[in-house]
Amino acid sequence: MTESNTTDMGDSASFATLSCSLPAPDVALRRAEAARVFRASVARREIPGGMHLDYADDDETARSLLAFVLFERRCCSTLSYRLLFDEPHARTALEIVGAPERVAALRAWVAEM
Question: Taking a C-beta distance cutoff of 8 angstroms, is the pair 13, 112 a contact?
Fold first, then answer.
């Protein structure tokens, strides 16, 4: 993971492979929002076809994740999103998965944050 904006997902063209419906001026703002959401995770791991991110289990976090998914499902419709609230409800999880040709870009997107 690098702090540079020139990583695999650091340029707008690479990010656009996951968010193709965003107009160019909105890409930087959306990347900042995604960074905030991904950095808030307490654990991350690769799963078949994507990423699994764990978060604290509180209502504010759940609402923030739901808002993220509601936006992303429209601008990045090539990925699938799952919010998980498994018992004993100690954590909330977000899973993002995609077609095989999207997985590397997805993992780079999450990892760079």
Answer: no
